[in-house]
Each structure stands twice: as C-alpha cells, then as structure tokens.
Design brief:
10 helices; seven-stranded mixed beta barrel; alpha/beta; 2 domains; Rossmann fold; eleven-stranded mixed beta sheet; about 375 residues; Glucose Oxidase, domain 1
Length: about 375
Amino acid sequence: MKAILVLEDGTVFKGYSFTGPGEVLGEVVFNTSMTGYQEILTDPSYKGQIVAMTYPLIGNYGINDEDIESSRIQVEGFIIKEYCPFPSNFRAKKTLAEYLMEAGVLGIEGVDTRALTRHIRVKGAMNGIISTEDFNVKSLLEKVKSFPGLVGRDLATPISCKSPFLWHGGRCYKTDISSSVWREREKPYKVVAIDCGIKFNILRELEKRGCEVLVVPARATAEDILGVRPSGIFLSNGPGDPAAVRHVIKQVQILIGKRPIFGICLGHQIIGLAMGGRTFKLKFGHRGANHPVKDLSSGKVEITVQNHGFCVDIDSLAGTGMEVTHINLNDNTLEGMRHRDLPLFSVQYHPEASPGPHDAKYMFDEFIRMME
C-alpha cells in the first residue's frame, strides 16, 4: 500500500505502509540505535512524535512480552527503510507489523531514511504527516499546519498514571497515597517516583537496588509525597516541553532539600527549571544509543542512550547552587548537574536504557548512597 510522508517545509518522501491504511501527524525525529525498536516504540517520551530509524533493517527479531517500557505503543508513527516480515528470535511472540496494527499505529517502509535524517539534521526537527489516503501535497501541508507541535505543550501530565501504584516484580499494584502504603518492610529504601512518562526499566533498576517504589501521578502534591515519608524522590522522563509542566515544577520547588532527589531526562529539566534555570529546544534533539558524555569529575567518557528534544541552558544555572557534572561531547550541551549543598542531582541521558551501554548505571548507585 503506497504511503507518503510530507514535512512542514514541503519536502516529500514516498514509501509503503506495512500496517494497513491510515494517516497520522507528529513531530518527525530520528533515532540512531541499531537495536531496541520495541523499547523505542513504547517509550512515553516519544508521545507526539513520528520516529524514523536510521538503521536500515527493522523487525528482524520480532516482538516479545518482556522488552517494553510502558503498557502500550507511544509513538504516533514509525518510519523505516526495510521491514523484515520473518523475525528470527526464540522469544518472539509476534511480528512488528502485527504489534503496530494491534495498536492502530501506522508504520511505513521503503523511505530513504538516510536522506530524511540528513534533511532533519540540516533543517531541524519539524512537524510532518504520513498518509496512505491523501496524496495531495497541498492538502497534506494544510493538515500539518494544524498540528500544534511540542513547544509550550504539557504532554507529560496527560500520559502520567491516573492513580498511584506500587511496582513489584515487574507488575503494577494500584494503591493510594497514605502513610500505610509501604508493604515490603524488608526493603530499606522507600522511593516515590513522580510519573511524567516513566519507563519500566527505571523501576526495574531501582527495585534491583533494594527500593520499594511508589509511582504517583504528575498531579500529586508535595504534601502528598512527603506524607508517605519516603527515603528519596525520583523525577521521571517524559514527553513535551518541560517548561509547560508547571504543576510538577512548582511541587519540586517545595520538595527540594526535604528529601534526596534524582531526576532523569524530563526530570532533569524540571529540576533545572525549579532551581530558576531555563530550557530551550534543540535543533534536532539527541536520540540514540551511542552519544558520548564526559563526566567532569573523573574525566571519563561514557557512551550513553539519549532521547530528548529540549535541554537546560547551562548559563541560566549561574547563581542557583547547581554545578555541571556531565557534558555532551557532540555539542557541549548540559548532560548532568548536582547541587553543591543539597541532596539533589540529575542527568539528561538514560542510565537505565536497555538495550544499550551500561556505562551510566552507577547513577542509580549514587541515588542509593544519597538516601543512605
């Protein structure tokens, strides 16, 4: 089935749908990972975006029940060079096409993804539309203009859990926010995670280190969180413009200094904003599993997994008490920071990422030491 991708600047790419008919709008971005398409599809940070994979063959190991980062596919659409309809993997339960079709997500192949990636790198990430139903470029451009984009939009609150839950052994158990919420007395660390689009592997990594984790909605208040007497507070990743997630920023301002706080990705940006810094949109974002980041304290270079389109402005942190701990070696943007006096630190990249390098998993051990 023929398909067309039209970007907001009028650039057209042709391909074929491998998931049936449909039409979808979103911000078009690219990811440079060679593997991990299932984790990418289910990462809540991709809400509102159409993802193009730069690796040319996708689908060759199918879909399994374990490698998911949330309860559903989050991307708006999926663009690849070549689809593999016959996966080979002993864990595979279904094909990529079946997985996308079950979720009603449009996937297209046959697109020159090298040309698309180069165009986005030169011109910047931009809104676009994929369609198998309308091939009139003028008509499609009108539809693209109706898409509001990501700047100024709080996409984290709508995607957050609607009620709190305890994470245990890979499963979610609904509960309420009360002083009697903790059930596993033998676990030494009680962590409240504010869900702005949290990935399951973050919860897995915390649990591995002896944490009982209570996940609360983005709408939770600082009073609710402190009321359960946690050992520490975690701020999750998530989609959209961090400056628009005003409620969480306000609550974090109250929480800072009350308990140890660790933030990843959107959580890192929220900490920057809560401390009086600013954020800005990157030209084409950082998305992939091979981004070099330098730890300024040790001089070591970590290979990291990243997925963000916004960044904290380093210069805006002057006078806030925050010091830079990590820098991106591709463009010198901020990748990590900590407070000089308070138990507060964060990273822009994803130390929990799987599949991907494990260079940065020590950040979770830092959080444990801070709670101790």
